[in-house]
Amino acid sequence: MSLSRVLGGAVLSLAASVALAADPDQAIRATLTKLQPDMPIEAIAESPMNGLFQVHLQGGRMLYASADGQFLVQGNLYQIKDGNAVNLTRQSESKGIAKAINDVPASEMVVFSPKEPAKAHITVFTDTDCGYCQKLHSEVPELNRRGIEVRYMAFPRQGVGSHGYNTMVSVWCARDRQAAMDKAKSREELPAASCDNPVTKQYELGQMIGVNGTPAIVLGNGELIPGYQPAPQLAEIALKAK
User: Fold this and answer.
1) Closest CA to 88 of 51, 52, 47
2) Which domains occur in the chain, in start order?
3) CB of 20 within 8 A of CB of 68?
4) Which residues are catalytic?
5) What average pLDDT does range 150-166 have in this prediction?
6) How far is CA 57 from CA 41, 100, 217, in A?
7) Running DSSP on this structure, what letter comes out for residue 112?
8) 23, 57, 90, 241: which one has the fewest Cβ atoms less than 10 Å from its Cβ?
9) Angstrom distance (rounded) from CA 11 to CA 123
10) Chain-centroid distance, C-alpha 140
11) Are 215 and 228 within 8 A, CB to CB?
């Protein structure tokens, strides 16, 4: 789902009156489903700001709406506490993303674990054809040494059927996924393989939680970090977020 597409249509569609439902939940749903019939609404609830309702979407994303459903906002809601601005939207979205990631079994990922029990973990949406993904992968041993478990999920940037997609299918269908990932990230061509695999499902999950490039790193608390981070810096962030 593209939120920019939704809001682009909202500028025009909200100008036209929608038949109001009896309560805010129904009114907001009526507006959003008119804009996008398949919008994955998970829940609608009052936000901490009076008169504003928060719309939780599957995967953790969030929109805000007026009680009558005629005004729609995409952005961050901050609360000022003790002189500091607290990003309530980011907090809520991170919880939703963490839940979505935790619902994926580790058996469906490609996991690189430390020799000792992990101190923290990161989940990386990756594309084997991505240069910065390859750079990050070269630092996985250092992340492991620092106690960070690296869990890979597939995100072929060029979509289903692309070279990256086919390579990742071969990785996920390999007898030794870790060895296959090492080869793919070293730009070695893998023997084509096919099996029942989660590559498409993981790609769709990435889109749902807001991934739009690789590597996209999800910390243990659900915070989404776009782009490459050097191993020492990434390990420090991961340990704080566990």
Assistant:
1) 47
2) 3-100 (3.10.450.70), 106-241 (3.40.30.10)
3) yes
4) 127, 130, 133, 157
5) 95
6) 5, 11, 20
7) E
8) 23
9) 36
10) 21
11) yes
54/33 Cα distance (integer angstroms): 15
- The chain-wide mean pLDDT, for the chain, equals 90
- Residue 43 dihedral angles phi and psi, to the nearest 5°: -165, 155
- Tokens encoding 160: 């289903």
Q: For the CA atoms of 192, 196, 197, 202, what is the dihedral angle to 10 degrees?
A: 140
Peptide bond connecting 215 to the previous residue in cis, omega within 30 degrees of 0: yes
| Mode of pairing for the β-strands spanning 52-57 and 62-66 | antiparallel
Planar angle of CA 194, 195, 196, nearest 5 degrees: 140
Both tokens of 159, joined, read 């979509």
Confidence of residue 14 (pLDDT cuts 50, 70, 90): very low
Q: What does the alpha-carbon distance between residue 170 and residue 184 come to, in Å, rounded to a whole number?
A: 9
